[in-house]
Each structure stands twice: as C-alpha cells, then as structure tokens.
C-alpha cells in the first residue's frame, strides 16, 4: 500500500521564495538580503533558488512582476473600462493607494525597486509597454493611450504621465505607511483629483 501524500498542503516553492524575498527586502533592502537568508526564510536549500531563478537579479525582477500582478488583481476589482476617462483614472489611482496602505511590504518593495538600479534598468516607462513578460498592457496605460488619442489629457510620453501620477501617489503612500499622515478617504480623493488636474487638457 503506497503512502498517502497530501499534495494540496505542499507549498509552492517558487511562491515561497518570492514571499520570503518580499518580506526580507521590505525590511532590510536589496543589498542586505543575501540568497542564503532568503533560502533560510523560505525553508529551502540555497540551490533550490537557482532551479526557479537564474540569479538574484532575475529573482528581484520576477518578484516585481509578481507584486505588480498581485496589485493589478486587487486594483481591477469592480473596475469599469467603459466609464469616462476621469472616473476611471480616479478609481484606479485611489485603488492603488488603498492597496499600498493594506500591503506595506509590497509598497516598500515597489518604491525601492523603482528607485534602484533594478528599476532603472527596466525604466518606469516599461511598465506601460507590452512585452514578452506582460501579455496585456496595464489598464492605466490603456487609459493614457485612449485619452491622448481623444485629446482628453496632455500628449506626453507615458513615463511623464506616469511621473505626474505616481510621484505624488508614492509620496502619499510613504507618509501613510510611516504614520506621518492618517489614511483619509476624502484626502486621498482630493489628492488623486489633483493628479488628474496635472495631466488633463
């Protein structure tokens, strides 16, 4: 009689590695998080990491994609792609702030990534491009393209529109997570409205 193995309870090693890396980088930063520590936290051997990722750089880039996918799944709940541009923009930005407030580890990682050589190698504008790693453009990028075509927002490169949107949002998220300002729905709505005012025609 063979062993009855409960595979349903067996953790996904790749996800375990990603989650361990996320937690450690959020607390310690990229350079203070060696693969040996990631392996220990994920309860695997160091060699196992390299069965799923080419090297630490590849792991960090894949973690970025993992976090972005998780954020998009959360942000897109109840999103109406047929709503007016302004309404869609305000909804997406407010949801991103809500996600960051509820997920400080993910928020910390994204901020570090975008302001590190990892983010520079990819460039912020790559988030708005369709490539082999992203079968679909992010909804905000789709909104920007359509809104520019219909002359609803300023005709600026995606990375400029992204900077005008995400710069203030990242600052607000940082202050909320640091406890400098309290999470206030009305204040967030006004801040997002100001971002819209910066890009609209």
Automatic annotation (TrEMBL):
Q: Name one GO molecular function term.
A: transcription cis-regulatory region binding
Record lineage = Bacteria, Candidatus Moduliflexota, Candidatus Moduliflexia, Candidatus Moduliflexales, Candidatus Moduliflexaceae
Name of the featured protein: Transcriptional regulator, TetR family
Q: Could you tell me which species this protein originates from?
A: Candidatus Moduliflexus flocculans
Alphabetically list the UniProt keywords.
DNA-binding
Annotated HTH tetR-type domain ranges read 11-71
One Pfam family this sequence matches: TetR_HI_0893_C
State the DNA-binding region(s): 34-53
Q: Does the keyword DNA-binding apply?
A: yes
């Amino acid at each position: 009689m063979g062993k009855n193995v409960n595979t349903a309870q067996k953790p996904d090693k790749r996800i375990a590695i990603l989650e361990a890396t996320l937690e450690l980088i959020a607390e310690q930063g990229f350079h203070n998080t060696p693969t040996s520590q990631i392996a220990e936290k994920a309860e695997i051997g160091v060699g196992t990491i390299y069965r799923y990722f080419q090297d630490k750089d590849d792991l960090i880039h894949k973690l970025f994609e993992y976090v972005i996918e998780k954020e998009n799944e959360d942000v897109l709940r109840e999103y109406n792609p047929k709503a007016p541009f302004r309404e869609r923009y305000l909804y997406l930005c407010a949801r991103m702030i809500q996600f960051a407030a509820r997920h400080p580890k993910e928020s910390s990682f994204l901020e570090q990534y975008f302001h590190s050589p990892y983010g520079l190698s990819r460039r912020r504008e790559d988030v708005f491009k369709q490539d082999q790693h992203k079968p679909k453009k992010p909804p905000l990028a789709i909104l920007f393209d359509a809104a520019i075509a219909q002359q609803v927002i300023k005709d600026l490169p995606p990375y400029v529109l992204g900077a005008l949107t995400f710069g203030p949002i990242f600052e607000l998220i940082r202050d909320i997570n640091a406890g400098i300002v309290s999470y206030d729905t009305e204040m967030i709505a006004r801040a997002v409205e100001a971002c819209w005012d910066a890009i609209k025609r």
